Amino acid sequence: MTEQHYLTQQFEASRQHLHKVAYRMLGSGSEAEDAVQEAWFRLNRVEAASIENLTAWLTTVVARVCLDMLRARKSNHEAIDDNVAEIATDAADNIEAELLQLDLIGPALLLLLDMLTPAERVAFVLHDVFELSFAEIAAILELPEASARQHASRARRRIRGATTAEQDAERQQSVVAAFLLAAREGNFDALLRLLHPDVVLRADATAIKISTANKAKGAPEFAPEIRGADKVAATFKGRAAGAQLAMINGLAGGTWGVNGKAMVAFCFTVADGKIATVNIVMDRAALDSFDIQLINTNNGVTA
Fold first, then answer.
1. Looking at the domain 168-302, which fold is it?
2. How far apart are CA 270 and CA 176, in angstroms?
3. What is the location of CATH 1.20.140.160 in the chain?
4. Are 265 and 256 in contact (CB under 8 A)?
5. Phi and psi dihedrals of 253, rounded to 5?
């Protein structure tokens, strides 16, 4: 067996694990695939015989690649070019849907992870999910071990605090209901009051393709990522006419459907009475994996 054949076998044996690590950090199937492929490229540029534990080495590389991607995402604060979204491959869509169906990470936790800094997210995922030591995490973050511990601890507190706040279903529902009403009425000022100044709107590839195809009919212009209250409010102003208030995977959200079947899910996170993130999901496999309960504003929740 040649060295290249051996490396290929070992890499393929680790691929699913590496995907789990990357997906939990990035929340995107296509970006996770990019991170894993980058690890493969880097493996082919080193002296593999000197690597004692190949899986551990690959995990470290993937984590560092993800950290760089998270930092770039955080610093750019710009939507990805629409052309990139339009040519997103079906393979990437399938990977993301498959990961959701396997319940490797729920959409609610993904939204909470978006609230963390890149370092906090990496430290939390690697330690609390994949049980890496803080010494290993410190090497990846290029920080002292004590700092790695602090990042994980802060992440844990922020997620715990957000989770506690999110358990207040009535408060969540009132904020989301007010947002949907303001969107329908085209009340821009009300939308701004309900949105966090740094709110992030993300749409999956299916939502982007459908909105692009229906742009002439007045469909909103979705993008992989839209940041800022002004832009998000403008995206929703005068829209969401048919959206119904719902609980989606235990969090307040909105949905629109045909004959009782959800065609789109609006997944929100609410912090301090403001909407911090909005995820637009139209991928069929992802929607089918969601627990969606419509809310009758007069009589509570209905299945």
1. Nuclear Transport Factor 2; Chain: A, (3.10.450)
2. 8
3. 3-165
4. no
5. -160, -165
**Straight-line distance from the first to the last Cα atom of the chain, in angstroms, rounded to the nearest whole number:** 57
Most confidently predicted of 2-11, 127-136, 274-283: 274-283
Per the confidence metrics, is the pTM higher than 0.90? Answer: no
For residue 272, which amino acid is it?
Answer: D
The yes-or-no verdict on residue 41 having pLDDT over 70 is yes
> What residues have CB less than 8 Å from 256, skipping those under 6 apart?
240, 242, 243, 244, 262, 263, 264
Average pLDDT, the chain: 79
Please determine, for residue 187, whether its predicted confidence score (pLDDT) is greater than 90: yes
The pLDDT of residue 257:
85
Going by C-beta distance under 8 Å and a sequence separation of 6 or more, which residues neighbour residue 143?
119, 151
- CATH 3.10.450.50 spans which residues of the chain? 168-302
For the ranges 105-114, 227-236, 266-275, the lowest mean pLDDT is seen at 105-114
Cβ(114)–Cβ(107) under 8 Å? no
- Give per-residue pLDDT as tens, 161-186: 655 554 567 788 899 999 999 999 99
Give the right CATH number for 3-165 from 3.30.450.40, 1.20.140.160, 1.20.1250.20, 3.40.50.970.
Answer: 1.20.140.160
Reference 252, options 234, 273, 236, 226; nearest CA is 273
By CB atoms closer than 10 A (0-12, 13-18, 19+), residue 250 is: middle
DSSP 8-state code for residue 105: S
